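Final report, Chapter 2: Outcomes

The project's central promise was a pipeline that accepts a single protein chain and returns its three-dimensional structure in a standardized token representation, suitable for archiving and comparison. That pipeline is now operational. To close this chapter, we reproduce one record exactly as it appears in the project archive, with the input sequence first and the structure output second.
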Amino acid sequence: MQNDQGRVFREAWISGVRKHYPGEPKAGYVAPWEETPEWERQAAAAVYGQVREFITVSGGAAARLTRAQKGRFVALCWIAQIYRHFPDPKPSYVADWDEMPEWQRETDADIFERIELEA
């Protein structure tokens, strides 16, 4: 099940990147699940679980969040996973919401909304 959740997260990421990224995205951004590194698979599954639990414990109230609030939640959960897997990550990997590129913020909001459909 965790593998399926991670795959859903990854598919939502790829879809968002293809929709929002300006120009041609890096190959790693749109690599299929099978080519995704193990740490990233684990992180994707973990963040999916965090978002789904957040939606559940809100009793449906999470639906009232703005797209930016939804995206921020995904971004913070992802940043925590980066710190978990990398002792000294690049600053761009752990950039705060306001420092993230627009395409990434939109993609994170799309991910939250994709998980909402399944919750």
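Archive annotation: DSSP finds four helices and no strands in the chain.
This record, like all others produced under the grant, will remain available to the consortium after the project formally closes.
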